[in-house]
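Hi support team,

I've been running sequence recovery on a batch of backbones for a student project. Most finish fine, but this one hangs at about 90% for roughly twenty minutes before it completes. I'm not sure whether the input is malformed or the queue is just slow. I've pasted the structure tokens below so you can try to reproduce it. Let me know if you need the job ID as well.

Thanks,
M.K.
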């Protein structure tokens, strides 16, 4: 009689049970990892915008401003009051140094953190 190779039903059930236990443990850690990765990505994007503003100010010999904006991708973006940066920010040349994006001032960069980020808040 030929010998059949394969797994028994008991072996498959035990393998599935072990796999489901491992996935049950890994799933919450994966969510935390993804949240932390999004936050790190958003803060690095903001840091790069700040470094770009500093570099452009030195290069141009003019004031460059970074301000947060509730509508950074609008046709006419504007700076916003408050401390919540999660909707985005603007980097622009600010020759009159008033911290407000006026008509005729050049926007160098529009920054936006990744979607589903909890918060990016400025603290003094």
């Amino acid at each position: 009689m030929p010998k059949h190779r394969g797994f028994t039903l008991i072996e498959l059930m035990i393998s599935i049970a072990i796999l489901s236990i491992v996935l049950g443990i890994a799933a919450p850690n994966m969510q935390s990892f993804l949240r932390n990765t999004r936050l790190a990505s958003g803060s690095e994007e903001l840091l790069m915008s700040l470094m770009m503003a500093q570099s452009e100010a030195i290069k141009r010999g003019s004031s460059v401003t970074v301000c947060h904006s509730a509508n950074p991708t609008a046709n006419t973006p504007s700076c916003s009051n408050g401390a919540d940066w999660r909707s985005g920010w603007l980097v622009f040349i600010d020759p009159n140094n008033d911290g407000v994006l006026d008509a005729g001032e050049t926007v160098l960069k529009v920054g936006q953190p990744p979607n589903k980020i909890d918060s990016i808040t400025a603290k003094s």
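--
Follow-up from support: It reproduced on our side and the slowdown came from queue contention, not your input. The longest helix spans residues 9-60. No action needed from you.
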